[in-house]
Amino acid sequence: MPSATQNLQNPVTDYLAGLDDPLRKVGERLRGIVDAALPEATGAMWHGHPTWSLGGKSGQRPVCLLKAYGSYVTFGLWRGQEVDDGPDGSSPAPARWRR
C-alpha cells in the first residue's frame, strides 16, 4: 500500500483533488472500485485523464479510464465487448471493432 507521501505525488490523486466536490466524490469512488477489482493495474495519467493499464507503462494494455467534465464523469472500458456480463447481457461488438 502506498504511503501518504506517495499518494500526494500521484498524478491521479492530483487530478481527482482538482475536481469540484460532486465530481471528485464520483471519481474517488470509481478509483476505489477499479483499484479493488484490478489490483495489478497501474493508474496513471494518459491523454489528460486517469487510466488504468495492465502493461508496464501508461497506455500499455489499457483497461479503463475516467474523465470529468463540467457536470458529469465518464467511465470507459477498452475492449468492453470482452466483458462477460452473463446470459442477460448485451451481445459483443462486431469483430471489426476489436483491437
In words, what does this structure look like?
The protein has one domain (4-79). The protein has helices at 4-8, 11-17, 21-37; strands at residues 42-46, 49-53, 62-68, 73-77. It has three helices and four strands, in the order αααββββ. By secondary structure, it is α+β, with helices and mostly antiparallel strands. The radius of gyration is 15 Å and the shape is globular. It comes from Plantactinospora sonchi.
Mean pLDDT: 81
Number of discrete helical segments? 3
The helix-strand sequence is HHHEEEE
The secondary-structure class comes to alpha+beta
Uncertain runs with pLDDT below 50, 5 residues or more? 1-7
Q: Major sheet: size, sense and barrel closure?
A: 4 strands, antiparallel
Could you say which overall geometry the principal axes of the C-alpha atoms support? globular
Region (Disordered): 80-99
Protein name: DUF1801 domain-containing protein
List the SSEs and their pairings.
Blueprint: H1 4-8, H2 11-17, H3 21-37, E1 42-46, E2 49-53, E3 62-68, E4 73-77
Antiparallel strand pairs: 1-2, 2-3, 3-4
What is shown here, in short?
A hairpin with an 8-residue loop joins β2 and β3. This protein has three helices and four strands; from the N terminus they run αααββββ.
From the structure above, extract its key features.
about 100 residues; alpha+beta; four-stranded antiparallel beta sheet; 3 helices; 4 strands; globular; disordered N terminus; DUF1801 domain-containing protein
